Amino acid sequence: MAEDKKMGMLIDYEYCTGCHSCEVSCKQRFDLDSDDWGIKVAELGPWQHGETDFEWDYIPMPTETCDMCKDRIAAGKIPLCQQHCQSFVIEVGPVAELAAKMGSKKKLVLYSETCEASRKKALF
Amino acid sequence: MSNWKWQEGEYEVVRTCTWSPPGEHPVGWSVLLYIKDGKLHHVEGDRKNPLTQGRVSIKFLELPAYNNSPERIIYPMKRDPQYRGDNSKWERITWDEAYDMIEKETRRVQKEYGPESIMTFIGTGRDLWHTVPKITFSAFESPNFNYPHNGWSCYGPRSSICVYVLGAGYPELDYATAFPEKRYEDPDYTLSKVALVVGKNPLVSNPDGLFGHALVDMMKRGTELIIVDPRATWLASRAKYFLQLRPGTDAALYLSMCNVIIDEDLYDHEFCDNWIYGFNEFADRCREYKPDVAAAITGVNADLIREAARYWATNKPGSMTWGLAIDQKCNGIQTATLVLLLCAITGNLDVPGGVLLGASDREAPTSWWGWDELDPEIQAKRIGAAEYPAVSTACSTTQPDMAMDAIMTDKPYPIKMTFTMSSNPIACPVADPQMVSKAMLRPDFNVFADLVMTPSAAAYGDLFLPVASSGEKDGLVGTHYGALTLFVAACVKGVQTGECKSDDEIMLDLGWRLNPSKFPWKDLHEFLTWELNGYGIEGTFDDLVNSETGFVTPPYEYEKYAYGLQTWNGEPGFGTPSGQVEAYCQRFAEWGDDPLPYYEEPPYSPVSTPDLAEKYPFVLTTGARSWSYFHSEQRHIERLRDLDPWPTTEMNPADAKRLGLKDGDWVYLTNMFGKCRQMLKVTPIVKPGVVMAKHGWWYPEKGPDDGGAGPFGVWDANINQLVPHNCYGKLGFGTPFKCMICNVEKAEGGPDFDAAWPKSNNYLEFATNQR
Q1: Closest-approach residue (CA) in chain A for B641
Q2: Which of B173, B435, B579, B752 has the most CB atoms in a 10 Å sphere around its CB?
Q3: Of the CATH numbers 3.30.565.10, 3.40.50.150, 2.40.40.20, 1.10.10.10, which one belongs to the domain with range B610-766?
Q4: Closest Cα to residue B359, out of B570, B209, B155, B191?
Q5: Does the predicted interface ipTM exceed a cut of 0.90?
Q6: Is B448's pLDDT higher than 60?
Q7: Minimal Cα–Cα distance from A1 to chain B, Å?
């Protein structure tokens, strides 16, 4: 695949609330069992630094099952995790374009593709 | 192509907007139902919805699992009352047989005891706050519409206080609902500089019509947060000010914040001079709660109280959203009043970007749904109405503790028949649930309308009516049950499951049989059109279904009090006896309470009961929300259960270390009222000395018959066994579900079944055998 066609996933984890909508959407797409994930939300904290000062972040991480919903994008739809994310913190697109969006905003993370092709077959 | 139904490859697609069931508040998730071979296959969010914009919670993403689950009861069933508790005795019957049974028992009870001996039970947050009262008042012709949550400790108190103090419908965050095209970017919308979030975790709970993540939308655009909560929630970790108070002490905190604002002359003079009744008396009351005094009560640093109060008063507009934590305490009425006054004295009521208010004609629905047409002699028999006018004036219900006492004691008269729609009393809303479980064996006939076999129906149900879920019914979804309508949308039926009927269909069927003149609609759609028009929306239900988005956001009028839109007579002002915001509440005085808001210690606390606190040293708060569940529902949905498999009790690491407890240990929570077992979660988000225990737990995998821990093991897990019956505030509202005391000790192990959530779904033989 040409470099400029490579896809990526940009996450603004300043606002990820850990609502699990991305995880469940992806599990449904690939019909995944309990301990099988297409995207998984990691938790940092909660850590208490001062009386009212808490550090607590959720960070979604795509697994090797994630195919960036290329079939959906080709059909004019958006990836399921991005669509259902209650905080709108996930954006899937050409990785070069997403990299340009990184700018100076804090708590962004950009993932490149995780696999050539998913091991799993999407149900929808 | 139709706006609401089309073909997409192998799927038929139907657009709908959701409301419970499955359990959920009227958030208004618009979803596309993808239907294959007559069954719901999957759902996707509908991006045309202007508020949720395609976003969907996991509860509704899992709608296919919920609707198609083998645990669903999909045909009417009956059980001879002599076999209550024995769940092998249920028999499938037809709807006609079920309605015949209800008609026969209704006529018998009406004739032998009077219609008041029929009592209905409703569940919270669902789409039947018109259905159940209408069945009660117009079909059964009984005055005893009952919300079985002790002290009416959810929504009703706050809603009533809006009526008594403001003469207004429910207050809400201004999240640009009236600007469906451009939302927050609309030039006519004003973004709140600060949002005060009080006793609420709206991201998880999506309460009563507020789409919780709208708050995140606002934070991204610059809204700062002041969070008042005993738990450091994720929102608290992003807040400008986080006030982590001792559970149950909120009123002292708000008295103090108001004191700082008044003493430092940060209040809105123009608003207070013109629109507040009793401002000077209120200011004097607040002076008793200087920050040092409030700090000693609440455990919040005095400087933090001062700084948060100053920030709130000087960053306008400020909006506010409040949660049921306010209601779940004996001092809740005063707490609710104080939160409204904190918004009022800073000039934030009903201004753009401030606190939205329902118009006066959108007050709590005292006269709706057939109450006014009841015989006055019957009306006068409503249980608890004479004793607690603060409850019965704005809520068209009984006082719930007294209603349960009537069932138990036959006083003032016996209750011979009950009808429970979407409530699971002994697993969720009631305090002292083991007592209630026994009491509910006393009526001759108990009807349940629900979706799965619950501990309550398993224990004492005689007739089970199977209810349709979202995606299986036509209906309406609107915010705040009509008290503040920020949107109205159409729920559209895509599939039929078994013989399930919607709650509205059951209401109409019963009404047409029992008292047809009070049910003049010829079919469901005619009823829904009538209901839609009642929300102030023109056109028919079918028009709404066929419209571009199926979703209406009515225009919003700000500053209604200035234009005569907040009163009944068209005069400027508020719909209260004084025509002003009543800091000195004349109705409270009339009902025998202090007219000014005050602080009162919780009835059981280290301060009020120090002797008991030696034995039960933890302050116990309950009911933090879960992404997976709505109260007692959804424990049988595998993906949801996987994410939150056990009832958890949160404890600070310092306490856990001192007691030799580890994360994941099973523990007993005990106090003078009862005991339950939960799994320990060690976390710094609660302060030392405080524990939070989850509510609404039972174990579907344990089976419906009592194996020693109640039906479905409900006595193993239900935290409300530690909360007392008949413990509420002076005006009849507020039971301390969120501020009790308890001890925590290590349990020998977990509940007596496989360590992992069983994957086999065939434990309810009668449910699966039906197919």
Answers
A1: A34
A2: B173
A3: 2.40.40.20
A4: B570
A5: yes
A6: yes
A7: 29
